[in-house]
Write a structure and sequence with these properties.
Blueprint lengths: L3 H5 L7 E2 L2 E3 L5 H9 L5 H14 L12 H10 E2 L4 E7 L5 E6 L5 E8 L4 E4 L3 E2 L17 E2 L2 H14 L32 E4 L9 H12 L11 E5 L3 H10 L3 E5 L5 H7 L8 H9 L10 E7 L7 H11 L4 E7 L13 H13 L33 H14 L5
Parallel strand pairs: 2-3, 7-10, 10-11, 11-12, 12-13, 13-14
Antiparallel strand pairs: 1-2, 4-5, 5-6, 6-7, 8-9
Helix pairs in contact: 2-3, 5-6, 7-9, 10-11
The chain binds iron/sulfur cluster.
Iron/sulfur cluster binds next to loops.
Length: 409
């Protein structure tokens, strides 16, 4: 029999359902330990892993390569429970949004953005956010807690359930996997969900341990198999964690820049007071693996009369001069009581033209899912709306997080 110490070592309290340990979110070595404690041989863990992450099965009884007594034992001790969906919305442009309710009733949002040849899932890393970026709806919601690795992986699995993106039992959706169930990262032609962007609610580098564990599970080539080149992690600029993220995960990096002077960035991305632009850009220059083939994406939200002048565009190019970069221009997506307006379309085009002429790819991101409040910066769980932000409390939470992660004080 498995003792409590074995299971509690791998899971947060909310990764249990009716006392059973949720196997979603365990990495393969943890799964092996947990199943060994139930008397199963090592190869059984690989079989169970494959059913969970290649097939997406939700019930142990469907794991037909396992003998019935084993399936019954698994069902008695474990669960494959997904979070529930409090609200599901589909935009007229095909964007889908799920308000995902965890076992402790906290909610986060998760958004699928389909394109012609691929589909990206915007995944949340925290309930709420400490960062209080002024243009971001999530930033008006107090941080409640970090999501566990299980809850991060479960967003991907839930989306694949809704998108019907798992192979049918007995039928491989992608024959190029050589007869193995599941997908081949080299060929995603049959997938609805091809890319992951850690750009949902929360600052992923302030929940690094859980985010990195979840991404390793998602990247595992014998499971969900979404490779590191198809994963982008977006940060508001947690400088001390950027290098580690590159070294350990090797995923694409996106920086929420949004301003070209510390004076302005201090106001709209308050983390800048701790890690100013100069330090942030040096961390980008030093990002492991960065090259012209693997550019860093700089997100730049277009705020009318705030950061959208010709001088801002020129200063942006000066700042990024020696960094392999592409710049995503994001028309500001309004939300109730937002203190900004979106720049005029002609201003955005002019800004983009200046950057293009300077040699920078600078696509203007087409707003997606605006009608369901799923566009960039609009996410906020309905259960957690706060009208005012307690600045001192936010600063305290940031300091607490950084102390816990051993970051600079
Ligand atoms: S932009 Fe990202 S880091 Fe900033 S408040 Fe919103 S969710 Fe948090």
């Amino acid at each position: 029999m498995m003792d409590n110490a074995t299971t509690s070592a791998f899971a947060a309290p909310h990764d249990r359902c009716e006392g059973k340990l949720n196997l979603i979110g365990l990495d393969l070595s943890e799964l092996t330990v947990v199943l060994s404690a139930q008397g199963l041989e090592k190869f059984r863990a690989r079989q169970v892993w494959s059913w969970i992450y290649c097939r997406g099965v939700r019930e142990f009884r469907l794991m037909t390569t396992l003998a019935k007594p084993i399936r019954e034992m698994l069902a008695a001790h474990f669960t494959l429970e997904r979070p529930t969906v409090s609200l599901y919305q589909q935009s007229e442009d095909g964007t889908q949004k799920w308000l995902v309710k965890m076992t402790d009733s906290h909610e986060v949002e998760c958004v699928h953005i389909p394109e012609q040849d691929r589909g990206a899932l915007c995944v949340s890393s925290q309930v709420g956010c400490t960062m209080t970026c002024r243009f971001c709806h999530t930033g008006t919601q107090r941080l409640v807690r970090n999501l566990s690795a299980s809850e991060i992986v479960a967003q991907v699995m839930l989306a694949r359930d809704y998108l019907k993106d798992w192979p049918e039992p007995g039928q491989d959706k992608d024959v190029r996997t050589g007869g193995k169930p599941g997908y081949n990262d080299e060929d995603d032609s049959t997938r609805a969900l091809t890319n992951i962007v850690m750009m949902g609610m929360g600052e992923p580098l302030y929940n690094y341990e859980n985010v990195s564990k979840a991404l390793r599970i998602i990247m595992n080539s014998e499971g969900i198999a979404i490779g590191k080149r198809r994963i982008t992690l977006s940060t508001s600029g947690v400088v001390p964690m950027i290098k580690r993220c590159g070294e350990e995960l090797g995923v694409n990096l996106a920086i929420s820049l949004h301003a070209v002077t510390d004076e302005l960035r201090d106001q709209i991305v308050p983390l800048n007071r701790k890690y100013p632009i100069k330090e942030l850009l040096q961390a980008c220059r030093d990002y492991p693996g960065v090259s012209n083939a693997r550019r860093i994406t700089f997100e730049y939200i277009m705020l009318k009369g705030i950061n959208d002048s010709v001088a801002d565009a020129k200063q942006l190019m000066r700042l990024l001069r020696d960094i392999p970069a592409k710049i995503n221009l994001i028309p500001f997506n309004p939300w109730p009581s937002a203190p900004f307006e979106c720049s005029e379309w002609s201003t955005i085009v002019k800004f983009s033209d200046i950057l293009n002429a300077g040699g920078y790819a600078s696509p203007i991101r087409t707003p997606r899912g605006r009608d369901i409040m799923a566009a960039c910066g609009q996410l906020k769980s309905a259960s957690q709306k706060l009208s005012a932000v307690d600045r001192a409390e936010i600063d305290r939470l940031i300091a607490e997080k950084e102390a816990a992660q051993g970051l600079k004080s």
